[in-house]
Amino acid sequence: MNNILTFNELKEIAKKIAMDDDRVEKLYIEQLETQSMSSDVNFFNVLYLVKDLSFDDASFEFIEHFGDVLTMFENTENENVIEYRIIYENFTQGIFRIVSNKSIDVLEELEEKYICVLNKDENKKSGVYIEKKVHKLTEDEFLVNTCEFFWNILKFGNKLYTKEFLNVSEEYRKVLSLLDEHLKHYVLSENKYLIELGKENKLVFNYVDTEIFEKYLTCYSKLELDSLWIALFNICGLFRKLSLQIAINLRFDYAKELDRDTVTYLRELKQKANSR
User: Signal peptide: which range, if any (predicted)?
Assistant: First the structure.
């Protein structure tokens, strides 16, 4: 198997391995922020949580499912963790870990942001971990976040209109940061996938539906004037879609008038900019 896998294909292969082996309890995969479900995977990181480490040569069989191995080496430092670094013949690189469920504490300092793709224990839902580890958004915080977002959007739009590009990249990052924060709360409100391992137990916006994720990626255009105007309206549209879903899920009110008035003003501003 020399073809480069998409992230979705990688996930399905990893899930089949987990389902076929009784020793596996959970499957974790790291999904990078730049990866959508249809992205090609040049690097992957999978972790199987197991009842015990009596795998013998089974770990190599697991590794071979993802492609033809060019080279690999073991990087195991803990008796409850098996770790391999692999390079496949198509030059895809991978980190492959098998971890005893007795050793979860060892993994708390991992830099990677793992998501739980498969949990065989149907009695344990991600919502349990959300209650324990993550602060849920209040309606006041939701309103403050919304107002701050549109205030920064207005500042950014005015800079585009006046062509004040000195700090425009800094303003752009602020807007994207606020969008990221809202996206996190969208995932939380949906009770979707929670990072259980790694630093700070952060949520990550993986497995948001493809349309939202692909639209989000288009916000990271080159810092050119036309691209930035397009990105600005894309960001507003995405923020609205996320906000309305958060509001439905958590029974909050959404500041529709603020949204409408801001976007109307931006359209007028862009028209003026084009007619100059």
Answer: none
